[in-house]
Specification:
The chain has six helices and eleven strands. With 224 residues, the chain is α/β, with parallel strands linked by helices. A hairpin with a 5-residue loop joins strand 2 and strand 3. The protein starts with 5 loop residues before the first strand and ends with a helix. Bound molecules: adenosine-5'-triphosphate (ATP) and zinc ion. The site of adenosine-5'-triphosphate has 16 residues, from helix 3.
Length: 224
């Protein structure tokens, strides 16, 4: 279903939301984010924003339901690998890596255990929200393991006796330390990215996307 207005999906609430609002504002897109709406219309450009959970953004793009999206590469890659495994649409165009949302996906283990490499994870149970990225990484190292899927509180899994190790997002490492864990292996480095659906765009939308991209480049360069 194509619309005349450019549809951009961004996270409604969370670590990417504020920076997305800021970026759009600096690009000259006027939006009133007050209220609790799923869709907000830009006041000065033919742009509609869809405010959703970040987990939904890769699928919305891969199914061609929205035109653009801002998403963490970790979430994007996890959904892509899941869709590849299921044989579902999994393509997108990466327009630009952005300058926020930086984090890494790492395996962490008990701080008192030694770690000599991925082989030490063989036969272990690893709690994670990112089973597909983890499997992709450890398959390449030829390490067999099992997972414990958790959508939250991953870092308490070892202490709770649910898993031997975890694979979770890290930015400072403070959460790991607070839970008696240490970072053993970085498996994926992530930032927020601007992505586009596959397929054709009419001339007006193409021009608008070009204009937005130019402005985004300018905004990022101005901060460097
Ligand atoms: P939602 O309610 O939209 O599902 P969420 O709880 O899944 O939100 P957030 O915690 O808001 O997600 O994180 C969104 C993204 O921010 C992450 O997927 C990641 O790309 C990025 N990020 C940056 N730093 C961190 C961090 N320290 N911990 C977690 N995510 C981070
Ligand atoms: Zn999420």
């Amino acid at each position: 279903m194509q619309t005349e207005r450019l549809r951009i999906a961004i996270q409604k609430k969370g670590r990417l939301a504020k920076e997305c609002h800021e970026l759009l504002k600096r690009c000259g897109v006027k939006i009133n984010f007050s209220g609790d709406r799923l869709i907000v219309h830009a006041e000065n450009m033919p742009i509609d924003l869809l405010l959703v959970r970040d987990d939904d953004i890769p699928g919305l793009i891969m199914d061609g339901v929205v035109d653009l999206g801002v998403i963490g590469e970790n979430e994007l890659e996890e959904v892509r690998l899941e869709r590849v495994a299921l044989g579902e649409p999994n393509e997108y165009v990466k327009l630009r890596r952005l300058d926020f949302g930086g984090c890494r996906l790492s395996v962490a283990i008990d701080k008192d255990k030694t770690y000599n490499g991925p082989q030490d994870l063989a036969g272990k149970r690893i709690a994670t929200t990112y089973p597909n990225i983890l499997k992709d990484y450890l398959d390449k190292q030829d390490v067999k393991f099992s997972t414990c899927m958790l959508n939250g509180s991953v870092e308490v899994a070892p202490r709770a006796g649910l898993a031997d190790a975890i694979c979770d997002l890290v930015s400072t490492g403070a959460t790991l330390e607070a839970n008696g864990l240490k970072e053993a292996e970085v498996i994926f480095r992530s930032k927020a990215v601007l992505i586009q659906r596959m397929g054709e765009f009419d001339a007006d939308k193409t021009a608008l996307i070009e204009r937005l991209l130019t402005r985004i480049k300018g905004v990022i360069q101005a901060k460097e």
